[in-house]
Each structure stands twice: as C-alpha cells, then as structure tokens.
C-alpha cells in the first residue's frame, strides 16, 4: 500500500480538529477558497463527477459538492474519514467517502471521473509517482487532474518548514519532510509518464504581514498543477 503509517498516525491524532478553522488545519481553511475557485474556473465543477484523493476531513470535497459536483472523497486515514462523515450531518452536503487507496480505486473504477483532485498529499506518500499514475487512470479521457504540493529547494525549506512550522507556527512541527518535496519538473515528469499533459503550473504564496494567501507566478514554495488526460 502506498502509505506511510507514521504520516497516517500523525493526521489521525489531529482528526478531531479538522473542521476547526483556528486549529492546526487553519492553513487548509485559508487556502481552500483559492484552490476551489481555481479548480472551478478550469474544470467547471457543476454537474461533474469528481474524485478528491487524500480528502482528509473533507474541506475541499464539501466545497466542491457545494459548487454542484457529485463528489467522492477517498483517504487511508480512518479517523479523518469519520470526521468527514460526521460533518456532513452538520453541513447537509452530499459526499461519498471511502477508505481506499487511489491505486485500489483505479483498479475498481478506471476512467470513472470527470475531475480528479489530489491536494497537499503527494509530499506525504512514499511513492508519489504511483499516486499520479492512479489519478491518471481514474480520470476519463479528456478529463482534468489537479495536484498541489511543495517545491524542493532551499527557499521552500526555509519557508515551508522553518518559517511555517517553527517561526510562524502555521503548522505543527514535523508536518513536512523536506526530502519528500517535489520539484515541478519531477511532478511534470510523473504526469507525462502517466499519460497526462500538463496544462498549467501556478504558485501559491503566503504574506506573513497581511496573513493572506494568493496565486501567482512564484512556484518556489507551494504550487498547483493542472493536467489533462489524453483521449
């Protein structure tokens, strides 16, 4: 199974705080409108069948459902999925959650989704190329796949680990492992090898003074990638 037990336990311990916008998951709440709007602009979520890989507690999955998508969220963190299901009772939205890996679902439901998202997950799995290949198999020909992850360079180490985890306290210490960060060129290669064509790479930046996230050309730290499966 393409999963790191230490990573799963790390997020399991925090699962009950997933929907607290002032908790360790505050950055996810803060960036969700940005990534949601970007995905919706590129793919048009309304009426689409969407899969959210590594959905965690369901922040993005629920938001895409609110935009009119038919959403399935998958994860290997059982406690996070329990929180996601419980939150549906409060929100009233409809999302189908499953405890299954992307690779296993790709065997079961190949080419079943119009859109596949895999956000803030690739830097937490042992074999990110395997996840990319699974996402490519899950999307329909001509469909869109969206990834977000962290670049690997001295600046990303300074900002994403030293800054975010130790100085600003945006994330718990130990959230990220620098060795697992992916350069855009590496993620693009995984996409090409999986039969995906890279359509756009865009950066996501955080201003510590205004405490605002924004999308732009700076991909040195956080970045998002859109790809399309060839017909």
The residue ranges in which pLDDT falls below 50 over 5 or more consecutive positions are none
The H/E string reads HHEHEHEHEHEHHEEE
Write down how many β-strands occur, each being a DSSP E stretch of 2 or more residues. Answer: 8
Radius of gyration: 16 Å
Shape: globular
Distance between the termini: 29 Å
Mean pLDDT: 93
Q: Please state the structural category.
A: alpha/beta
Biggest sheet details = 8 strands, mixed
Strand order of the largest sheet: 3-2-1-4-5-8-6-7
The count of helical stretches stands at 8
Helix content: 25-40%
The oligomeric state is single chain
Give the DSSP E fraction (strand runs of 2 or more residues).
25-35%
Characterize this entry briefly.
Helices cover 39% and strands 26% of the residues. It is built from eight helices and eight strands, in the order ααβαβαβαβαβααβββ. Helix 5 runs parallel beside helix 6 (128-138) and helix 6 (128-138) crosses helix 8 (184-193).
């Amino acid at each position: 199974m393409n999963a790191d037990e230490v990573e799963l336990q790390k997020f399991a311990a925090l699962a009950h705080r997933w929907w607290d916008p002032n908790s360790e998951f505050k950055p996810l709440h803060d960036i969700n409108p940005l990534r949601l709007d970007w995905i919706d602009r590129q793919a048009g979520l309304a009426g689409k069948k969407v899969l959210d890989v590594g959905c965690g507690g369901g922040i993005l999955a629920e938001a895409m459902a609110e935009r009119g998508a038919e959403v399935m969220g998958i994860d290997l963190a059982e406690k996070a999925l329990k929180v996601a299901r419980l939150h549906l009772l409060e929100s009233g939205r409809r999302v189908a959650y499953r405890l299954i890996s992307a690779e296993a679902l790709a065997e079961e439901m190949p080419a079943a989704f119009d859109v596949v998202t895999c956000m803030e997950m690739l830097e937490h799995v042992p074999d990110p190329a395997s996840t990319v290949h699974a996402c490519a198999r899950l999307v329909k020909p001509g469909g869109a796949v969206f990834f977000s992850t962290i670049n690997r360079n001295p600046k990303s180490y300074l900002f994403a680990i030293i800054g975010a985890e130790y100085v600003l306290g945006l994330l718990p210490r130990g959230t990220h492992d620098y060795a697992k960060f992916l350069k855009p060129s590496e993620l693009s290669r995984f996409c090409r090898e999986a039969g995906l064509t890279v359509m756009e790479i865009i950066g996501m930046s955080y201003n510590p003074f205004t405490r605002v996230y924004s999308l732009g050309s700076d991909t040195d730290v956080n970045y998002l990638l859109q790809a399309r499966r060839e017909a």
